[in-house]
Write the structure tokens for this entry.
Amino acid sequence: LARQEKQSEGIRELEEALALAKAANLAKEEVEALLALGLLSSFRRGIGNRRGYLEQAEKKIGEIKDASVRVLYFRAKAAACQDERNRAGAEEALRSALQCCEKAKDDKENNLETQACVVRSELIILLCEQDRHAEAAKFVTACDTHARTHVNDEDGELMQAAMSAGILWALKSGNEADAVRRIQELEAVAKTAHQAGRIGGQLLNMANN
């Protein structure tokens, strides 16, 4: 419930940012807000309208050259495809997002490097869910390396996403010892009760699946 409330609050704040961007005729900021809304939406929880936000963003994405915004677009598109059980579309979008991250020049905050880690995590999970763990293996090392050197980024969520993807990959690969090591590593970096609860919830979801 707390997570759902936080998502709903985030949706409200982004809707306000979207309205301001539209009023000021700021195309980049408008598209960025729409894509953030799409990523924050949850089809399963009935929060937001991912496909609706994406369709609005698609009307202006052609005007946007900023690589970080284009990566957000492909990630939002992949999420919408996942909602619609279109795994092929999701994979294509995620591979396009990763290509953007790898080809474009990064900014001083290394936003593209961070997004590449997130995209690899999502690709690992998508491939493993289709029993394509051998294909996913090539993304695991780069994902691990970035996450382990940026443990505290995004309140630990980057590390959690990378390790969770790695746990699924290890289990699908039949390497239970590696999965256990990753679980222990995740638990060791949980510095707050909130982080520990979030990690515990995600591990429970994985166990149930």
About this structure: The radius of gyration is 17 Å.
